[in-house]
Amino acid sequence: MEKTGGYIKRARDLEVYKRAYAVSLDVHGATLAFPKIEQYALADQLRRSSKGICANLAEGFAKQTHSKFEFARFISMALGSCSEVETWVSYAFDLGYITQAQRDEWLQCYANIHGMLVKLREKLK
């Protein structure tokens, strides 16, 4: 982990970022196998929201030197993306595009990520 003076230097060094990034790669790969009709609908929404967690963390982290409030705002957006992913995962399962094991694994990962984001936002208060 790259730190300067005891502080994390980049968003990608945050544990929550690492976890969100790893599961977003898994989501991305799995959605490539969704039916063609879903590639610009459900699959795209699932990919975007899963990647949005990391994107919001990265943008907010970069702005925190100017405002911790701004970082907290981006963490809130990441929380929104996390909740959105959970909704799309449920749709993907109910439509038969992913297995129950895959759904359970992803929902557990995103529940953990959600909790980590909440704790990170609370630390900024």
TrEMBL record:
Pfam families: 23S_rRNA_IVP. It comes from the Bacteria. This is Four helix bundle protein. It comes from Mesorhizobium muleiense.
